Every structure is written in C-alpha cells, then in structure tokens.
Amino acid sequence: ATSPLTMQAAWINDAEFAGYFLGMDQGYYTDAGLDLEYLSGGPDVIPESTIIAGRADLALTTPDTTIKAITEQGAPFKIIGAQYQKNPIGIVSLAKNPINEPKDLIGKTLAVPPVNVISVEAMLKMNGIDPSEVNIVPYAYDPTPLVRGEIDASLDFTTNVPFTISQAGEEATSFLLYDFGYTIYNDTVVVTEDVLAEKRDLLVAWLSASKKGWEENLADPTVWPPKFADTYFKGTGRSIENEVYFNTAQKPLMESPEGYFALTGDGIEACLSALGEVGIVGSADMFDTSLLAEA
Amino acid sequence: MRRHAVWQSTGLRNALILLALWEIIGQLGLVAGGALPPPSDILIRLWQDRGDYPNHIGATLYASVMGFLIGNAVAIAAGVAFALSPALLRLFRGINIAAFALPPIAIAPILALTMSGMAPRITLAALGVYFVTMTATVIGLSQADSRAEDVVRAYGGSRWTVLRLVQFRGAVPSILAGLRIAAPNAVLGAILAEFGGGGRWGLGTYLLGSLGRGEPDRLWGIGLIATLIAGLSYAGFALLSRRLLGATKAVTLNTAVPTGGTASTCLSARVRMALATVLLPFALWWALIKLSGAPAMIAKTPGDVFEYLFLSQGAAAAQARLLAALAETLPITFIGMAAGLAFAFLLAILSRLMPRFIEAFMPVALITQTMPLVALTPLLVLILGRGPSLTLWITISVTFFPAFVTLAQGIALVPKSAEDLPRAYGASRWTEMRMVTIPASLPYLFAATRLTVPRALLGVMIAEWLATGRGLGNLLNQSRGYLDYGMIWSVAAVSVILSVVFYQLVVVAERQVLARLGMATPE
Amino acid sequence: MRQPDGIALTGVSKTFTGRGKVVEALREVTLACPPGSFTSIIGPSGCGKSTVMRIALGLETADAGEVRVAGQRSLEAARQGITGVAFQDAALLPWRSVRRNVEVPLEVLGRTPRAEAAQVQAMIDLVGLKGYENSLPGELSGGMRQRVAIARALVTHPQVLFMDEPFGALDQILRRQMNVELQRIWADTGSTALLVTHGIDEAVFLSDRVVVMHANPGRIAGVIDVPFDRPRQPPLFSDPAFHKVCDRVAEALHGN
Amino acid sequence: MRQPDGIALTGVSKTFTGRGKVVEALREVTLACPPGSFTSIIGPSGCGKSTVMRIALGLETADAGEVRVAGQRSLEAARQGITGVAFQDAALLPWRSVRRNVEVPLEVLGRTPRAEAAQVQAMIDLVGLKGYENSLPGELSGGMRQRVAIARALVTHPQVLFMDEPFGALDQILRRQMNVELQRIWADTGSTALLVTHGIDEAVFLSDRVVVMHANPGRIAGVIDVPFDRPRQPPLFSDPAFHKVCDRVAEALHGN
Ligand SMILES: Nc1ncnc2c1ncn2[C@@H]1O[C@H](COP(=O)(O)OP(=O)(O)OP(=O)(O)O)[C@@H](O)[C@H]1O
Ligand SMILES: Nc1ncnc2c1ncn2[C@@H]1O[C@H](COP(=O)(O)OP(=O)(O)OP(=O)(O)O)[C@@H](O)[C@H]1O
Ligand SMILES: Cc1ncc(C[n+]2csc(CCO)c2C)c(N)n1
Ligand SMILES: [Mg+2]
Ligand SMILES: [Mg+2]
After folding, report:
1. What residue of B is the nearest CA neighbor of A169?
2. Which part of the chain is the ABC transporter domain (chains C, D) (predicted)?
3. I need a labelling partner for A200 at 20 to 30 A (CA). Which of A283, B215, B449, C196 fits?
4. C29, D158 Cβ separation under 8 angstroms
C-alpha cells in the first residue's frame, strides 16, 4: 500500500524538475511506498503558501524567502534538503554588451523580479558597489527587453535564458550570484514542522526516490527530456532542445560529493551568512539534515 | 437591407486596412525595434503551435464561460435587488467596489489556496464580470421611462410588475452593454487565475511557459485566441443589442421630473445606515476569512491588518513603507483617472460621429482587454520606456473599455426625436452631440465615470508592478515573495478603501448634477 | 346602503415646489362623481386638471384631503381592475406592438391577454387601427399613438374611467366618432367616467356634469349640469339647447 | 427674377416599411407655398401631414420628388436660420429650463442668447409663461410645454415657419389668442408659414390656402383658397362667409 504525499514545485514544468518526472514515470515513488501528487508552480504560485495552507506536504522554495518567512512571520518551516547546491540565479546579459562581473553593472539597467531585489542589492554590497548606482527595474521573466537592448541585464536562471537568447539570434553571457558571494542554495525542500513530525518516513522515502530520479536523469542529461515531450512537457510552450540545454546546464549546480539534495555544514553556513548580508538572520536549526542521512 | 450589407463591408474594409498597416509595420520592424510581430508571423506561428492549443483553449473556455454565466447571473439578480432598494445598494457599495478594484495578483493566489480545481479560475472570471454587469443593470433599470411606469402603477401594478413590464425590457440594451464588457473580463479573469493556480492547461499557463522564450509571435497568438473568444461573445451581444435597440428607444423624450423618492429619514436612522455601510464590507471580509478556513499566516482579518499596521512590532516600519508607496502612486493615479475617462469619452463621442472608424477599432480595443499585460508590457516598455507615459497607457487600457461601452450605449439610447430639434435648425453633428446627445446621456456618463475611477488605482499598480518598480504595485509584489501577508492585505485594503472614496466622490457629484437637471439617479 | 361614489375627492390641496417657482396646483378641490355618471373637467392650460386626475389615480399624493375610488383607496381600486386610464401623453411601451400595448392593463391585472384576444382586437378596431396591430409605436403618427392609449384605457371594461385629453390629437370627424363610441361603451358598462378636455362641445355632449376649473390656485369655479337624454346622437351638436349649455360653460370658463 | 417659393415640394413620395406593415405615407405630393403666404394642412390622423413637414425640414428623406425651402435645400436653409419649427410633440429638452429651451435655436445657429434675451423673454411672455422661466419642462402641464415649443419656434424670427398641431393641447380661449398672435407675428415678419392642424376654423382663420389631405396613400385631395382680408379679427369666427369656407373644407375633408 502507498501513502499519499503532495509536493509543490517552484515553477512550471521544465527540466528544473526532470528528476521528479523521471521518478514518477519509473515508479520510484511508488516503490518507496508513496502515492505522489505533483503540483506545478508558476510566477504567482508561492510554494511556501501552499504548504502553510496544507495543500501540499513539501515545497521547493528559494531559501531567502523561506528563511525570511521563518524569522519574520514565525512560519514553522524546516528545510530538509536542497536541490541546487549552487543557486542557478545569475546576471544574464548579451555578449555584445557583456556584464561579466558585478562592477560592470554600474550605470546599467538591470531587470530583477521584485522579490529578488534585496538579494541583488546584497550581492552588490558584498562586491563594494552602491546599489543606487544600478538602475533596477521589474522583471517578469520575458527576455525580450534584454534581447532588444531596452535593459542591459536581467536576473534569471542562467541554466535557461542563455538558450532562449541564442534562439533569438544573440549570444548571452552570464555569471552566478553564487560566484560573487551570494552563496545560497535553491529549490530547497521545505516542510512544515507538523508534516515533519507526522510524515517523517514518507519524506525520507521521497528524498531517496528523488535522489534516484536525479541520478538517473543527470547520468546523461540529453536522454530524459525527450521522453517527457508528450507527457510533462506537453503544451508548456517550451522546446525539448531548451530542456536539454537546461538539464545539461544545471548538472554542475546540483552535484555534491555528498549526493543530491545534500545539506552540508559548510553549505548551510555559507547560505546563512549570505542571507545575513541581506538582513535575514537565520540559524542552523532551520535545517534538518537528519532525513537525508536516512535517505 | 442593402444599407446593412454596405455598412458591414465598410467596417470590414477598415479592419482590413488596419490589419494591412499592422503587417507593414511588423514586417519593417517599425515599432519597438521589431518587437511587434506582423500578423502573418503570428498566423504562421499559430499554425505551427496548433497541436498545443486545443487543451489550453478548452480549459480557459470552460473557466471563462462558467465564470461569465455565474458572475452575470449574480450581477443581474443583484442589480435588480439594488434597483429595488437603494439602501441595499448603499450597504453593498464597499463590497461591490472591492470585487472590481481588488488587484487580481493579490486575490488569485489566495483563491488558489482556498479553493481547488477550476473553482479559483471560475471565481476570478466571475469577479471580473460582476461589477460591470451589475452597474449596467442598475443604470438600465433606473433610466426606465416614468410615463410607462405610471401606466402600470395606475393599474395597481406592484413594484415587481413595473420591473417586469417596463424596467427590465427597457434595461436590456444596457445589460447587453454590460455583458459585452463582461466578455473580455471573464476571459482575462480566467487567464490571470491560471498564473496563480499552477495548473497544466489553460491559455494563461501556455502564456507563462512562452513568456520566458522571448517569442512575441507566440504571445500574440495566445493573446489573439483569447481575444477571439471574448470577441465572439462581444459580437454576439453587440448584434443582439443592435437588433433590440431601435424598439427600445423611447419615441419621445420623457420630460417628467423624478419624484423626490427617498425622503430623508431621521438622523439616527441615517447614522445607523452609514455605520452599516462602512461596517458591512469589513464584516464580510472577516466572515469570508473565517469560513475559508485558510491559515492565519496567510488569511488576515480586518483585525489582523489593524494590528499589523498599528499595534505590531513592525507597525511603524510597515506604515512608513505603505505611506511612501502611496505617495508615489496617488499623484499618477489622478492623472490616470482623468486620462482613462477622457479617452473613453472621446471614443464614445467618435462612435457616434464616426461609427465605422470605431467599429474597426473595436478588435484593437478588445485585444487590450484580453491580452494579459504581463505579455504586453515588454513591448510597451520598448515603445514608451518605463516612465509616466507607460503608467498612463496601462491605466488607460485598464480603465477605458467599460466606460466607453457604457457611454456609447447611453448615447445610442437617446430618442431620435430629441435630435430632430437641433437637426431642424441645421446643427452640425457636433452641436447636436453637445446640446442634446451628451446631456441626454448624462446618467450613463456618470455610470461610466463610476466604472473608471475605482479602477485607475489598479491600473497604476499594475504598471508599477510590471514596469516601473515603484509605489503600491511594487510593494504588493515584493510582499508576496516575502510572504508578508500583513502587507499584502494592507495594500489590498488601502487600495479598495481609496477606490471607494473615489467612487463616492463621483456619486456625490452625480446626485447633485442629475437632481439639478431633473434626471433620475441610479445611485 | 348607498353605493359609494365612483370618484370622490374631498378638500384636496396640492402645492408643487418646483425649481422655477412654487405652484399651488389645487386648493380645496371637492368633487364627487356618482356611480355611473359622466363628468368632464374643463379649464385653462395649467389649472390643475391633470393633477386632479393623477391624485385620483394615486400617482401623486395630495398635501391635504381625501380620495376615494369606488369607495376604496385609489391603489386598491386599481389593483382590483376597477379603473381604466388614458394619460395626456400616450405613454406607450416602445418595444411593444400596438396589440401588445393594448394588452398591458390585462397583464398588469394578471389576466391572460390570450383569453381576451377578441376584446383587444375590438378595441383596436374601435380606434381605427385595424391593420396596425403589429406596428411599433415609433411607426405610428401622433394621433395613432393617442388612439392606442384610448384602446388601452377601454380594454379592461373599467368601472371607473379616467381620460386626460384623449382626443387632442384627433381630427374632427374621428373625434366625433370616438365621442359617440365612448358614450356607447360608457353606457354599456355602466361605468363612472371622468374626462379632461378642452372641447366645450365634447364635454357637453358626453357629460352629465361639466366641472369648470380656474387657475392660480387651481380650483373648481363651477359645475354645470347637462340635462339631455341618453343616448345622445350627433345631431345634438347642432341643437340650440345644446349651444345654450355650451355658452353657459364658456361663461363659467371665461369670466365670472 | 421671381423670388423662389417659401416652401416647394414637387412629386414627393414616401413609403415606410415598418415591422407591422408597409405604409405609403405620401404619394406624389406637390405643394408650393409662395413667399409670405400662410398655408394650413388638414387631414385625418395618419394621413401624412407630419411626414410632409418632416420631409420639408430635411429630417426624413423622400423616396422620390424634390424639396426646396426658400429656393435651397432644406438643410442649407436651416443652417442659415431661415426656418423655425414646432413639432407635434413639444420635444423639449428635459434638463433645460423654459428659458434655456427657448434659447436652443439661437444656440444652434451660433447666436448669443444673452444678446437676444429680450426677444426670448418676449416669446415666453407671448405664450403666457411669464414667471415660469426657470421651471423645468417636467414641472409644467402638457399645455404649458406645448407653449414653450411655440415660443421656441418663433424666437428666431424665422422666414419659413413650420408648425405641427401647435395648439392641440390648449384650451379654446388661449388657442384663439395664440391664433391672433401668430397671425400678427407672421404678418410682421413676412414669413412663409405652414401649419398642420385639426381645427378647420383655425385653419381657415389663419390661412391663405387650406390644403386638404386624404390617407392611404397620403395625398393632397384639394386646396381651398381663403379670400378674407388681413388682418383678420376674432369676430370673423362668427361670420357666415367664414362658415361657408369652413364647410367647403369640411366637405373636401369628408366627402368623396
Ligand atoms: N411635477 C411638478 N412639479 C412642479 N410643478 C408641477 C408639477 N406638475 C404640475 N405642476 C404645476 O401644476 C400646475 C397644474 O398642472 P396640471 O398638469 O395639472 O395642469 P393641466 O390643467 O393639466 O394643464 P394642461 O391643460 O396644460 O395639461 C401647473 O402650473 C404646473 O406647472
Ligand atoms: N418611422 C415610421 N415608420 C413606419 N411608418 C411610419 C413612420 N412614420 C410615420 N409612419 C406612418 O406614416 C403614416 C403617416 O404618418 P404621419 O405621422 O405623417 O401622420 P399624420 O398625418 O401626421 O397623423 P397625425 O394627425 O395622427 O399626427 C402613418 O400611417 C404612420 O403609421
Ligand atoms: C526556469 C525558471 N525560471 C524562473 C523560475 C522562478 N524564479 C526564478 S527566480 C524566482 C524568485 C524566487 O527567488 C523565481 C520564482 C524558476 N524556478 N525556474
Ligand atoms: Mg394636463
Ligand atoms: Mg402628425
């Protein structure tokens, strides 16, 4: 018999979640005793809200918002894993007008999703740049203004947008915020304390099945995306080549000597200190590494 | 018969000219450095994507049709109740305006968390149509011919009989105008709900997936399909309206002055009424939160918001942020209001003076109503930059349509005999408009204003959220990411309260002006 | 017990406070129309004739005084289908055909127009609109619209009939014809009729009593009884006795 | 060169296709009113009188035939302020006071009502509405509204005056008074007048020629010249010669 478990993804169906799709298709979750329900995300879906509302048991989140919610709203969250060891978010620009490091941003227009503004400002400060020297405007995940030169750079997934830009006939260049001091995880696996208490074994099962899925998917990043063309990727409006690019690009950001989803002492420390720069003061007890140890 | 055919072909010709113009502009990349794709590219792309569409269209169609039906049924029933009881109308004012002026980006996620399946989409679509149809119903019913009402009353007809025999049929063109506005609102509502719902199917979901790909032709294809859905419904109601209009117009202008109506009751009753009017929306807010069973961290009651803004630890900081955002948002809101109204009035007047031109413009107007602004903003930013002109443009596009359709309908309802007089003295079309048509449709002009004013703030907030990164819109969006629900609800409450205030100002002006001119006031 | 008066106004006063000025439209108007009687009101433009009618119908409330229609309050009488009315303005529903306009009172009273189709058609024929049954009001001439209003007033066989200048837009011949028909219908139904008119001859021809009103304030200046036998035939119009009564009305109308 | 006719209709035909039926409202109507003449049209309800007027005013287009007002096309004549009109329905603008309603033609013609305040007031006084200048139409009686329309028609001193049953809602005395006043104004301005009326006596009293129309199809059945000297005084109403002309009109109206 399987037990139901619901997960809330961070975005619409794309290669960012290929490991889970694989796990579902291959029956890894069923084998682990789970009846997994997968909820897609989107720009207006705030994954943390879904678990607070009890609509899902676990969610993939960005740690800045999660830890901010714990410290400021008293949200009862625990982070039990991290899909991305290095946050794929970076500054993307056109090769013909390249922005290769933070100081290149001075005097330029940078489009940033409003939630990420404080992250960018923290990264700028870490690199000795006054945020007021950069013209920050809202970004809504459409690269057209960048391609057309209305903005000089945008903050987006470096695993994804460069492909889009190349499709538009331009060449992109990018750098990760991570590589310039903003050392946070991303797609952290978050649960509420209640769920952690009640469904601990199911969560462990989910972690181990997901690991299996990701291992298999990233063994050769070009193999699996085409298999989802008529299932998970149908009708998303994206192309399989795009997903293959994404899948390939994200591999180095997910791998860790400790295996997928790893939460290492150093990693947590780096994440917390980076967030500290933004004024988000978290602590190590917001992470529960014990499930990974069992998975 | 023949005149009709000729008319249609002229409208068609103008539309074709417009399309050809678009093609040329698109091909030559004249607008926004080529970010506006020509229609041919859009069509080719539509054809290539044809496999993707059926599921998406099906989902959006289902949600928007259901929302349209439910929202309008409620709206018409409520409109009838409000027309029968002005006190009820006053009581529900706050709630009505909230339904219209609440930012979808604020409610869509909350609906998604408290409902499941298609329900959030249907609800948002229904919310999108409720206010306009309700307003149209009330104005239509209130402008019924009192002479005909006298006949029914003289035979002992009840209030209900008057409603059934005189008012309702007289209001049909107005209600149809409401339904025409409701059509694009329902489609847009369904699409916006998809952004916050995380479902797999729907034009909104498709748009999201495509948004990151920087392919304007795809985005336009999706927008045009959404417009087509709304447009078919719009055209259906427009046709029906045109068929019924001739026989609905009074043969002669009614000169009767409306009787005093609600005699001002005693002071204590008025105070109680005012109190109830203010309290009811908050009570309903509170009740909805309690009924939804949503967790306290997400769903804030009026009390929670009060605490957040005035009692909590961070109250001072929250207040400061809110006030700073307001200071940025309010000035441009007033300008946006004026601009939206002016544009609507201009179009309505042109629809009388140059009907063919406006007919050809209607598809463009519909696109602005159904195409989600997220998809349009990158293009607009390229054309207009990220300054006040963009904010005005977005505010106009969010506000003008309901006002325009309402006013145009009011103008179309003016009896022909009223215009005979200036015509007999050789008046120009404009003089005729100025002296007869516009004054005669003044009640509709005010209704149009009431539809515009509370929405201006929403328009400005959308522009801030999508393009300028300032003010209330930005604060709202940022707070969403931080799960700062106290601030989200504060912004929502403040924007609704402000909208109610703007609305109330129009109502006061309307009452005074219409009473002075001996016209019936719906509010 | 005595049957109540068809129409009874007692000490009715009404002052309008308009934008332009305050008008004392009626001062202490007392008027009793016995059941089955025919009364005409005649008076200068603006003297309050229509106001009397609207108050009697319960469409306007009097500042003072009492109103009874067939012994009941106006609205109650109306609800029972006792009253019939033709207003000074035809007040047709623009979206209803001639026939459907004539049917309005039946619908209001909850009767089925289908069942009374013959009566509806008879009234349309009576006012000479046969063939126009399906026309909309906007497709009729002014006089034709007024005739629809007359047909509508008569269609319910009202026991108490109010008519405010119903023949103002009709030509002489049609007017005479309508006068004769109205007399016939009134006699057939035994109804109480109150007619506002500017035609002295019409008033005298039709009425048992002609009420003469004066303006500023609107008031009853005199009541002239008309003694001729019923049914009255058109030749009466050229009878010297008839002219004498007309002269008396004219006298009451013009000067004391 | 001969001055053009004040009003000239040549072979005008008009058929209305309504929902209810097809009506041949006018068939081959030819009518020429010499400049400075006074013409009345009389005919049964629905015979096309208003249609003749509306076509002459350019408010309705004829299916066939030609229309000239003071030698020009209707709209041009109107634009020059040559025409004045009182419709069958008073057609007042409900939101304008009596004074502002009377001012409408002046405003349309681009004149400043302020400058002609005396003329506006004179017209209001003429129709007996002194004191009601600031009243809204809804605060007036039916007859008073019609009088506002008359004042409005006369306020521009029109050279060509169209009036469609302007006195229908007035009492006899006022009607006679207005007849006399109208004759005076018409004579003073030397205008061409076309009056639609149901009053035979009124038509004969005022006109140089009475045009009698018949219905189905609407057509001119006869034209009766009225020979009496000008100015005509009220006693003419009781002159036997006057009655003889009236009888001829009645005959043309009713007979064959
Ligand atoms: N709603 C109103 N507001 C203000 N004054 C009014 C109103 N209705 C009528 N009056 C005034 O009351 C007076 C009487 O009006 P009423 O309509 O009864 O006259 P009437 O005798 O029917 O005249 P007519 O023959 O012209 O129709 C008029 O002076 C008119 O100005
Ligand atoms: N807009 C219209 N559509 C259809 N038929 C019309 C229209 N206007 C007038 N008619 C018809 O044309 C005929 C003549 O109408 P008109 O108004 O000219 O009559 P009239 O002589 O002025 O009558 P009345 O004395 O009753 O005012 C009528 O039979 C009427 O039904
Ligand atoms: C390909 C891809 N694009 C966008 C997002 C969503 N996203 C990127 S940054 C950000 C704000 C939170 O830090 C969000 C929601 C995603 N997950 N994957
Ligand atoms: Mg009257
Ligand atoms: Mg007529």
Report:
1. B214
2. 7-240
3. A283
4. no
Strand pairing partners for A6?
A: A37
CATH code where residue C176 lies? 3.40.50.300
Answer whether residue C1 is part of any domain: no
Same domain, C134 and C178: no
Question: At residue A44, does pLDDT exceed 50?
Answer: yes
Chain C residue closest to B515 (CA)?
Answer: C19
| Count of domains forming chain C | 2
Query: How many Å lie between the centroid of ligand 3 and the Cα of residue A11?
Result: 7
SS3 D254: helix
ipTM: 0.90
Statement to judge: residues D24 and D150 lie in one domain: no
Is A48 close to ligand 3, i.e. is its CB under 6 Å away?
no
Tell me the backbone φ, ψ of residue C127, rounded to 5 degrees: -90, 10
Task: State how far the Cα of C168 lies from the Cα of C42, in Å rounded to an integer.
Answer: 13
Q: Order the strands of the C64-69 sheet from edge to edge.
A: C22-33, C7-17, C64-69
Out of C123, C157, C191, a domain closes at: C157
Examine residue C217 and say whether the peptide bond preceding it is cis (omega within 30 degrees of 0): yes
CA-closest candidate to residue C45, choices C86, C88, C12: C88
C-beta separation of D49 from D43 below 8 A: yes
Q: What are the backbone angles phi and psi of residue C220, rounded to the nearest 5°?
A: -90, 125
Residue at a domain's end among C157, C180, C198: C157
Within a domain: D1: no
- Does any CB of chain D come closer than 8 Å to the CB of residue C141? yes
Q: Which residue has the tokens 């309901």?
A: B402
The answer to the question of residue C2 being in a domain is no
Query: Within B371-437, where are the H helices?
Result: 373-384, 388-412, 416-424, 429-432
**pLDDT higher than threshold 50 for residue C184:** yes
Residue D49 burial class via C-beta count within 10 angstroms: exposed 0-12, middle 13-18, buried 19 and up? buried
Q: Which residues pair with C24 in a beta bridge?
A: C15
Q: What DSSP assignment string belongs to B219-271?
A: HHHHHHHHHHHHHHHHHHHHHHHHHHHHHHS-SS---PPPP--S----HHHHH
- D78/D96 same-domain check: no
Which residues does residue A8 pair with via DSSP β-bridges, in sequence order?
A: A39, A59
- Rg (chain D; Cα; Å): 18
Q: Are residues C107 and C53 in the same domain?
A: no
Taking a C-beta distance cutoff of 8 angstroms, is the pair D20, C134 a contact?
Answer: yes
What ranges make up the beta strands (E) of C145-191? 160-164
d(CA B455, CA B468) in angstroms, rounded, equals 18
Asked whether C49 lines ligand 1 (CB < 6 A), one says yes
- Do D108 and D59 fall within a single domain? no
Are D50 and C141 in contact by the 8 Å Cβ rule? The answer is yes
With cut-offs at 50, 70 and 90, classify the pLDDT of residue B260: low
- Do D171 and D234 have their domain in common? yes
Residue D4: phi and psi, rounded to 5, are -70, 155
Identify the residue among B124, B208, B289, B383 best suited for mutation to test binding to A, counting A beta carbons within 10 A and taking the highest. Answer: B208
What average pLDDT is seen over chain C? Answer: 92
Q: What is the C-alpha separation between B439 and A48, in angstroms, rounded?
A: 55
| Nearest-CA distance D177 → chain B (Å) | 26
In a domain, C143, yes or no: yes
Amino acid at B67: G
Is the per-residue pLDDT at C6 higher than 60?
yes
- D189 and D122 in a single domain? The answer is no
Measured in degrees and rounded to the nearest 5, phi and psi for residue C26 equal: -140, 135
What is the rounded CA–CA span in Å between residue B37 and residue A275? Answer: 42
Which whole number is the average pLDDT over B470-494?
91
Shared domain for C74 and C170, answered yes or no, is yes
Per-residue HEC secondary structure of B319-346 comes to HHHHHHHHHHHHHHHHHHHHHHHHHHHH
d(CA B272, CA A256): 68
Smallest CA-to-CA distance from C16 within C51, C43, C44 is with: C51
Q: Is the pTM of this model over 0.90?
A: yes
What residue has token string 């009907």?
B355
